[in-house]
Design a protein that fits this description.
heterodimer, A: 381 residues, mainly alpha, Cytochrome C3, two-stranded antiparallel sheet, 13 helices, 5 strands, 23% helix, B: 294 residues, alpha+beta, Alpha-Beta Plaits, 2 domains
Chain lengths: 381, 294
């Protein structure tokens, strides 16, 4: 009797099973089906073929642009009409630009901690495979949606052959079709003069080059959460090629106090840029200009004047043991015999002596200094 | 394959049978298979590359045309005997413009008006979804063209001998070989998804639920004209994209009630002939009476 019950139960179970759609097609209310988490059609206990659970909040990819590959050949597509050559994607450039926008997640919209997943982990290749899982685009769709949607918005070339060569057509210049802009030349503005509505101090001069070069700011420090289309737009250079951060003080206020001392920025005339030599009397020269400001002035933003005496920073420099080569000028035997203060008048080492302060008006390296016209003031003791 | 002679034979037999028994007329309403296939078109993903047009022509051995870029997309086209599908552009309100592209082809209705209107049974709805035209049966009456709410079937007017009715055949040969339709396969954006109609509706609902800003809450073709195999998702109202506004009732419902009403039980034709016969008889009698009087 029990055998009959059991077998009929099996029968009912099998009937129920037979009536159901294929595994990949069943989905619950959240749109998850077996293939959301399993990579195979029939997961077993021994081989559950789990993929990391795709949740958008699990995106943890925040690598530097340099950590990623320079370029990627998109050759994983193996659809039956192979109409085009694989496209070469300039990953580095896109990654660098994305620093100013939505960062890596703009494309890597799902990634659990660890290695960066290739698109093909979730997006199946081939149209037949896609028919099994209709909830998300296949690999071809995933690739094209990532690329075309942005490129379309940015008004760039969106024709098929702007990314890959047609197989049916004999390539006219194959290498040219493969060339990838490995490094985009971004022209950074040097000096911008803004006209404001202020009654007094109408003009604000902004030195872009100082902010990027001198203060060592990265593009993304100011240009964060930009839309790609702010710069890459169909009508390029609509604002003279300059991408403005915004109106009013918002662009400056994160670093500069805008409550007091308006004259620091606002003036009636365009201003000259910051010059360490003019402002402080200490020429940074070849070596000091390479240093970040904070190296000498400390991390505090309000930089106070420092002594121009070398030893205020280079405390280990002693008369007698000092190797003059670190200054970039090797003293020959004649010069090393001369008292320091003979050239560095009044022991003022901040100001660089010139050949012509002792010799005639010829100067090194343009010309070999000629006769000594001025005698040294003091003799070495 | 049936020939025209077979058709005439079956027609005669069924007409004879119908006049004898009423049971033959009371055929049950056909219920479409739950596993029938369909295609979901996501117009928000389409970029108007018209690869589908080219692929369709390749698959059906039509003279091919080079894929044109978006700028040369003509203002408005209809599928015709030279192309079974076309992509049209509809400018959107966005600035900069982001036009919507709509692929037009036979919708493969669940209850096709063309099938119902065809007097020789040349158009048939397959259980798996496609609506197919059979050239061996067609007599070229073009009733199907009138009956189609989407104005899809087109006639080769310029062919004097054996002109054909042309419309999308759902790439039935490719499907029979285990492939997907050519347009679905080629679409670079995968704006077209081929699958079980029921699953496609689930996917479409999910998309609308997850992206309410991206989609208008309407799956065109889910219920239109009793449901179609091809279904569409769009951001704009379908009215703006020149989709016909159709009710939920299948097309054959209206046309067949008129058509069948006229011929129901052969009562109207028989009574018409009876009336005419009666009139003739009366006139004849009157004439005879007049002649007799003379």
């Amino acid at each position: 009797m029990s055998v009959t019950i059991r077998s009929s139960a099996y029968l009912v179970f099998l009937l129920l099973l037979a009536d159901r759609p294929a595994l990949g097609q069943m989905s619950n209310q959240r749109g998850n089906n077996c293939l959301t988490c399993h990579t195979c059609e029939v997961p077993t206990k021994l081989n559950p073929c789990l993929r990391s659970c795709p949740r958008s909040q699990m995106t943890t990819v925040h690598h530097s642009a340099a950590a990623g590959p320079d370029s990627i050949l998109m050759e994983k597509l193996t659809g039956s009409p192979e109409l085009y050559e694989p496209a070469l994607f300039s990953h580095r450039v896109h990654a660098e630009m994305s620093e100013m926008s939505g960062k890596c997640v703009m494309c890597h919209h799902y990634n659990p901690p660890g290695k960066v997943l290739p698109c093909s982990d979730c997006h199946a290749s081939g149209s037949a495979a896609r028919t099994l899982d209709l909830s998300k685009p296949g690999l071809k769709g995933a690739y094209h949606r990532q690329c075309v949607n942005c490129h379309r918005e940015l008004g760039g070339a969106t024709g098929c052959e702007s990314c890959h060569l047609s197989r049916s057509r004999t390539p006219v210049a194959a290498p040219a079709g493969r060339s990838v802009k490995e490094a985009i030349r971004v022209t950074r503005p040097k000096r911008l003069v803004f006209e404001t509505k202020a009654n007094e101090g109408r003009l604000v001069t902004f030195f872009h080059n100082e902010h990027t070069d001198l203060f060592g700011l990265a593009c993304s420090d100011c240009h964060a959460n930009e839309r790609c289309s702010r710069c890459h737009k169909p009508a390029a250079a609509s604002a003279g090629g300059v991408v403005h951060l915004g109106q009013g003080h918002d662009a400056c206020s994160p670093c500069h106090s805008v409550k007091e001392n308006c004259r620091r920025c606002h003036g009636e005339q365009p201003r000259a840029g910051f010059s360490h030599a003019r402002r402080t009397g200490f020429d940074l020269g070849r070596f000091h200009s390479l240093l970040a400001c904070s190296r000498c002035h400390g991390a505090k933003r309000n930089y106070s004047g420092l002594s121009s005496n070398c030893r205020s920073c280079h405390s280990q420099w002693e008369t007698g043991s000092f190797d003059h080569r670190v200054t970039g000028m090797k003293l020959d035997d004649t010069h090393s015999a001369i008292e320091c203060a003979s050239c560095h008048i009044e022991n003022e080492y901040g100001r660089k002596p010139t050949c012509s302060s002792c010799h005639d008006d010829k100067s090194y390296p343009g010309a070999t200094p000629g006769l000594r016209v001025r005698l040294t003031k003091t003799k070495r003791p | 394959m049936e020939t025209r002679r077979d058709f005439l034979r079956t027609t005669l037999i069924t007409t004879a049978a119908a006049s004898v028994s009423e049971a033959a007329r009371a055929a049950p309403a056909r219920i479409p298979s739950t596993d029938r296939m369909g295609i979901l078109v996501d117009t928000t993903a389409c970029v108007g590359c018209r690869s589908c047009e080219a692929a369709c022509k390749r698959a059906h051995d039509y003279p091919n045309e080079p894929t044109a870029d978006n700028s040369t997309i003509p203002a408005r086209r209809r599928p015709g005997h030279d192309s079974l599908t076309v992509v049209n552009e509809y400018p959107g309100p966005e600035r900069p413009p982001r036009p919507t592209y709509v692929k037009v082809q036979c919708m493969h209705c669940d209850f096709p008006g063309c099938e119902s209107a065809c007097i020789v049974g040349a158009i048939s709805k397959k259980e798996s979804g496609p609506v197919l035209w059979d050239g061996d049966k067609c007599i070229g009456c073009r009733y199907c063209m009138v009956a189609c709410p989407f104005q899809i079937p087109s006639f080769e007017y310029e062919k004097a001998l054996k002109p054909e009715i042309e419309k999308c055949d759902f790439c039935i040969r490719r499907i029979d070989d285990g492939n997907v339709p050519a347009c679905v396969e080629v679409c670079p954006m995968e704006a077209l998804a081929y699958g079980r109609r029921a699953s496609l509706i689930e996917v479409a609902r999910e998309k609308i639920r997850n992206n309410p800003d991206r989609y208008n809450d309407h799956i065109y073709g889910e219920f239109e004209a009793g449901g179609t195999s091809w279904m569409y998702l769009a951001k704009a109202e379908f009215k703006e994209l020149e989709f016909p506004e159709l009710g939920r009732d299948p097309m054959p419902g209206t046309s067949e009630s008129i058509q069948h009403g006229i011929f129901a039980y052969f009562v109207p034709p028989v009574s018409l002939y009876a009336l005419l016969g009666g009139l003739m008889w009366i006139t004849k009698k009157r004439k005879e009476a007049e002649e007799m009087a003379e």
